[in-house]
Amino acid sequence: MSNQETAKDRVERGLKQLWYPVLPSYMVSNAPVGITRLSEEIVVWRDGGGNVRAVEDRCPHRGARLSLGWNLGDRLACWYHGVQVDGAGIVADVPAMKECNFTGKKCLKSYPAIERHGAIFLWFADDESVPPAEFHVPDEMFVDDCSGFLCMQNWKCNYRYAIDNVMDLMHGSYLHAVSHSMAEGDKQAEMAVKPTEHGLIFEKVGQKGVNFDWVEFGHTSTMWVRLTVPYRKRYGGGEFFIIGFVTPVDEKNCQVYFWRIKKSDGFERDTWRFLYRNRLEGLHWDVLEQDRIVIESLVKNARSREHLYQHDIGLSRVRRMMEQAARSQVEALPQSA
Questions:
Q1: 209 Ramachandran zone, left/alpha/beta (phi>0; psi -120 to 50)
Q2: Quick one: which H or E segment has residue 84?
Q3: Which UniProt keywords apply (predicted)?
Q4: How confident is the model at residue 218 (pLDDT cuts 50, 70, 90)?
Q5: Identical fold at 18-124 and 139-324?
Q6: pLDDT value of residue 254
């Protein structure tokens, strides 16, 4: 396969050298969980201290799924023959044989894991020996005067379509025209792109704080999007942030993670969190469901049959950035790879 073909395949399956959210925290307790992310089959579990571990979901003995096995804390035991593998992908023990030649050997790929804001993130890289980059996301996910809720949904589409959807500002005025937060503003607009240190800001010219009027795309040690959407006065006014990530599952499926965040403190925070759970969360899910239905129903090979116009310069620019990143990553691979 040529470098060009390899880069095309990489951008479709997911860029590497990045942190990706792979599961909400509540989905991993004592039992090991088998997942597919970036077309890689992985098992995730918690050790005795509650820390997340992740390795290939494959017993190095005969290829049975470790996710079907037992959690022994710092290691998993295969259900098939009891082979034990630790969180570094090293065979810790082969109970069925007194002395086994692959005991103590690293036989599986392991994934650095961190847990932030109610989600588990894994580091996906080409070279496992290189330490992961520092975890970097927008400030709103960290600062004390912000409070938020995580929303995750599985979409039956390539992850790039989900990113395109967020970079498409104008769909808010049409697809979400009856939404509690996206029903205002002009249905015509001119768009502009502003480069940033880590990506770009795509925005409507002359309109801000009215609808879905701007979005930032960032490529740091993660790939993320950041935007604000205003509340109508009947829902308290002001605006809330959305910090989003899209994680490839395979070429035809992805997960979308959105943190809905509002700057608030004290009694105002308590009021907003109560209001969100009791009045707003269902409305937000409705908006996300509208996006999912449209994106999943796009015609086959939609990207190759498009006719884009000026409103699409944001998503076009992001596509190019991702394709350039894929080419750079492929060119950096050892020739043997």
A1: left
A2: strand 84-86
A3: 2Fe-2S, Dioxygenase, Iron, Iron-sulfur, Metal-binding, Oxidoreductase
A4: very high
A5: no
A6: 98
Helix (H) or strand (E) holding 129: none
Q: Which two tokens stand for residue 132?
A: 């992961």
B/e letters for 122-160, b = 16+ CB within 10 Å, e = fewer, are bbbbeeeeeebeeeebbebbeeeebbbbbbbeebebbbb
Domain 139-324 matching CATH 3.90.380.10: the answer reads yes
3-state secondary structure of 255: strand
Q: Which two tokens stand for residue 1?
A: 């396969």
Residues for the chain: how many in total?
337
pLDDT on residue 243: 95
Q: Which of 173, 158, 181, 176 is nearest to 280 (CA)?
A: 181
Locate the domains of the chain by residue range: 18-124, 139-324
What's the CATH class of domain 18-124? mainly beta
Question: Is the pLDDT assigned to residue 239 strictly greater than 90?
Answer: no
